[in-house]
Amino acid sequence: MTDSMAREIIQRKKEEYGESLIILCHHYQSDDIIAYADFIGDSLELARKASRIGRAEHVVFCGVYFMAESAAILAPGKSVYIPDRDAGCPLADMAPEGAVLKAWDALKEIADSVIPVSYVNSSAAIKAFCGRNSGTICTSGNALKVFEWAYSKADRIFFLPDMNLGRNTARGMGIPDDLIALWDPEKDLGGLDEETLMKARIILWKGWCPVHWPRFTPEDVSSVRAGCPGIRVIVHPETDPRTVAAADMSGSTANILNCVSRMSPGESLAIGTEANMVKRAASANPQLRIVPLKEVYCDDMARITMEKLADTLLHLEDDTYRVSVPGDTARHAFAALANMLKI
Length: 343
Ligand code: 13P
Ligand code: SF4
Hints:
44% helix; binds 1,3-dihydroxyacetonephosphate; 5-stranded parallel beta sheet; 343 residues; 3 domains
């Protein structure tokens, strides 16, 4: 299918389905896809939107699989589709259910008063594990608030799968590094001893986003500052804590865009996150100087193309692109996600 055929199909199907179709897009999608979005957001905004879809019956999610899965869980009466099921997330894949349950059982034997919190970048099974154990979910947009809630329920958090978001948030709350334990799923007891686990305020799963870590470094921050005196630097909290410390600010994709909207003409900002969003912010704001801290792309987000979106819209009446989550998993994952949306 050529791009012009795909464009024609997408346009025609959008008109045909009208209000019974909604296309949700994550900020990391390419401009080609964003052009057809009815709603664009970060993970938190997309989860909120999915929980309040309103009239639309068909929800097409342009993002990665865990996001579409979360939408399907949060919008149980709707049909949710993703244009490529293989648009995964390597970070989410770093926390397979079996290894997490094994770690949880071992941890519970040693440390009491522990609550599981998973980053939304995780499978439905991991979200269900949190729901079954009175835990919750967070995104990069609400991690601090969610951690505060979790500490009102328990003395320690078992956080997965992103060690960087976990450490950045914990440090932001003033938790010292010696009370932050790193659980390596490749090692017995996570490579930790009982004393470390008993005193830890947070136990981080050793997972990371390969787009953000270790790609953005403190050296990138110093070199952009050297090349453009006065430039401010904002990075996503999936980056290395040393990079977050070197930057001026950190925030989710929506927070980064809010920061851009508050800038005055002539100001400069380097952004450390996926480059599609950074370049779009730069071209939408010619009065500012916006540069990528480093030009990196998420290959999984890029799997969503116009051709696949067009084919999805041709198959809304069958299961080709439909995302479904088994009943029991969906029920417990819903509890964890709904809990997050209340915090
Ligand atoms: P946001 O929650 O900031 O949208 O980030 C999602 C993500 O996948 C970042 O890598
Ligand atoms: Fe996953 Fe990283 Fe891609 Fe986000 S940017 S979807 S965390 S691999």
